[in-house]
Amino acid sequence: MSFESQLFDWIDQCLSEPIDKSVIAFSFNLNEPYAIELIGSSEFDMEDSDWACSEDFVPSHRQIAIPGKVCSGDWEECLEIMTKLVKKYLASDRPGAKTLHSSKAVAIGFVDGDLNVVYATG
Q: Domain count of the chain?
């Protein structure tokens, strides 16, 4: 199974869990050594990335490792690769993509770093 398929299945699994109605935005957080996690927040502020510090939704399988064959370079390269995969997921018709599109925003970035908003409503 490709990492893309594994990632997409993991996102679907995460977003199939109960999510409180107070959650209005989601963040894909990247860590070193490379892993990706998903959280949901009851806060969102385009001008202040600290909104993602409010972890109001944390799935039971919070993160998955990113294989070295996917991200073996520097953190900027990993961010670029994972951003493309998250955008591809958002463009899909997968069940979790619908959940993400019903939120105010979806972002990706390294923990303790800047967030890149990849989806936002009006």
A: 1
